[in-house]
Every structure is written in C-alpha cells, then in structure tokens.
Amino acid sequence: MAFAQIVYASMTGNTEEIADIVAKKLEELGHTVDVNECTTVDASDFEDGDIVIVATYTYGEGELPDEIMDFYDDLKELDLSGKIYGVVGSGDTFYDNFCQSVDDFEDAFAMTGATKGADSVKVDLAAEEEDIEHLEAFAEKLSNMLNI
User: Which domain of life, per UniProt (predicted)?
Assistant: First the structure.
C-alpha cells in the first residue's frame, strides 16, 4: 500500500493523540505510517510520502505554534504534486479563531500542488468518541483518494 507521513505539534498531548488515531486507522487500512513531532523532521521529508498529514494545535487567538513555524514556512516552498494531503488539529472553542492553524496549513498545502484528500477535522480540546469517528473517516477518505 502507500506510505503515509504524519507530522504533529502538540503542547498538551491532545494533538499527538489525534495524530495517533489517524495513524492507527491508516495502518489498519494497510498503509505504512510514520508519525513524527514537527521539530524532529523537515518539511522536505513529505516528498517521500504518498499521503502527507499535518496535525497541529492552535495557540491563543489563532496563532500557529512556535515549534511548527519553520515547518510551515518550508512546506509552502515544496512541490508536492501527486501527493494526497490532509490536516487535522485541536483548538479551544472559547476563542473566536477556533483551529485557525488547521486553516493555515490547508492554505500552505494548496501552494504545494498536492491534492486535498479529505476535509479537515477540528477537535475541541481532546478527541471524544464522535471526534474519533470523524478522524477515522478522514483517514479512510485519504486512503480512498489513492485509488481514484
């Protein structure tokens, strides 16, 4: 099957858990999955993947986390034509710009030539049962895009 790469930024562990839920489902679907914290890889590593996913939290009033800024900036410079991408993340509905970082990464991926494989999934704080269902459906949609 395909090689999926998931890069995440997580302050409290919520977004890491979200990344792990997606990874587990992709593995169940027969894909090889590599999950890495954003400070341990380069955006150019996505050039080796068939499915590329960012899982990020949103800080405060809609800011990208500091630790993923370099990855974000580098991602916008890549040519990921032929890749399937997806974005998931966590935030707090207390803030007006709920999960803004997810939207920011959607925009960054759009610059790369990659194909959007599924609608983003935004989770309020920690993943609950309904969120897990959405994350698993997200992974299935990404997987199905490879066969189109």
Answer: Bacteria
